[in-house]
Amino acid sequence: MKKVFQFLCLIVRLMSGLMIFIQGYEKFTGGFSLTGLTHVIAQNEDSPMWYKLMFEYMIEPYTTLWEWVIPLGEMMIGIALVIGFLQKYAALFGIFIMINYILADMIFTYPIQLLGFIMIVLNMDKLRNLSAYAIYNMFMKKEAG
């Protein structure tokens, strides 16, 4: 049963990584723009006031920068989760991104993805030996000894 749960955690990690990579890639190649989003969030009744202010003063003046950072960050998180490199940190950044999307009232598949990232963080002990780092260590031990 332990191996089945470990395999399930691996599937969640791979699917979460692929989903966020594809989202980032589509934003990167599809002309992602934050220009109109600031006004939508300002008029949104579901977003908290502190989030609206943060978006107005931290995101809106630097939209050109964020239009590059967001898609590249999503793609890097996806790659890290798929290969299992720094997967805990990638999942934590994934949680951060999904919470931001939910606060901006962009609720699509983000709650499901948020649940996947939380599951990855909470089950890191199950995923440690299914990562690129574990495979690297396995080969280094064989070479050394």
UniProtKB/TrEMBL annotation:
Subcellular location: Membrane
Key word NADP present: no
Keywords from the named record: Membrane, Transmembrane, Transmembrane helix
UniProt name for this protein: DoxX family protein
Annotated transmembrane regions: 7-25, 68-86, 98-122
Bilayer topology: Multi-pass membrane protein
Chief location of this protein within or outside the cell: membrane
Organism encoding this protein: Mammaliicoccus fleurettii
PANTHER family assigned to the protein according to its UniProt record, in alphabetical order: DOXX FAMILY PROTEIN, INTEGRAL MEMBRANE PROTEIN-RELATED
Keyword Ubl conjugation belongs to the record: no
Source organism superkingdom: Bacteria
Pfam families registered for this protein in UniProt: DoxX
